[in-house]
């Protein structure tokens, strides 16, 4: 590959690596698994980059590749790549900013999300990232209507999990 393609890839990856880290956090439970998944997603992005035509935003394309890679590995290695435990992601707040009630709500949300299947997790993740339904649909390869319907069902499912 030519160096300009490589420079473009590295630049885009540096600018948007948080996307990959967030997906890794969603599908792994420890630092080593996170690093392994990050590396695998980066490899898959690099392999696919020459075919990236720019028809969609780089971030949309990266979400699609990263989520597909994570879900594929998650399904293959459900015993070695576990969903993340909330306790390992406890947010650190400055003393003045600490809100016990808010932390408990976040903890409940994480526990509920971890009971969802891998596709539902991906949809919730993108929804919480403030992605619109058009981008969610494009990333997950489903129709916008289907994304909305799935999200409404997931909201109901999460409500039942949180308030049985």
TrEMBL record:
The keyword Transcription applies. GO terms for biological process: DNA-templated transcription initiation. Keywords: Sigma factor, Transcription, Transcription regulation. The keyword Transcription applies. Residues 14-78 form the RNA polymerase sigma-70 region domain. Residues 108-158 form the RNA polymerase sigma factor 70 region 4 type domain. One of its GO terms (molecular function) is DNA binding. NCBIfam families: sigma70-ECF (TIGR02937). Belongs to the sigma-70 factor family. ECF subfamily. This is RNA polymerase sigma70 factor. It comes from Flavobacterium enshiense DK69.
